[in-house]
Model the fold of this input.
Amino acid sequence: MHRLRLHLLLLVLLGLFAASCSKGHDMDDMKHDSAYMKIMMDMMTQMDAQAKTQDPDHDYATQMVLHHDAAIKMSEEELRTGSNQEMKTIAQDIITKQRAEIGQFNAFTSGHQPMQPLVPQFNTVQKTNMDKMMTASDARTMTARPDYDFAQLMVDHHQAAIDNSEALLQYGRNTTTRALAQAIIADQRQEIASLQSWLTRNR
Done:
């Protein structure tokens, strides 16, 4: 009888372990299948591969083009697959604003040569900020609800833009990029507040 009980207990524990592993694999699969996460991972690959000049203003501008491009792609995915009008409105606003800012960044880099002295600290801080964004995103639970997943990942994406813009204000020397950084900080703080409010109301 004692052996039978031990055997049954072992079977129950193995069943719980298998269920836990299956749930973990399902969550991992959902994360890997997320179109939003794929866009963010592609962005990280592109940003890591992009040549750095160690001029904070130049590197901030070129990196933010890639960062904004990812936000636009995520927003286009929300417009394609989402169903909540509030999230669709935010997505369209992101597309409109960030396309305009990409134009400003590209205009800046086309007429700007990297300047001395070099400031490698900016690139170190920027890389740390992007890694922090991915850590936060990896910790998210993907729900397969396009509107919800868009909102929660865009919070992390916007926070990285704010962090990088604050780094630019610390290390940058150009009035054009500093003005863009200040505008991005103000605008994306407001959008984060709207996204977090929506997430709270739609758990």
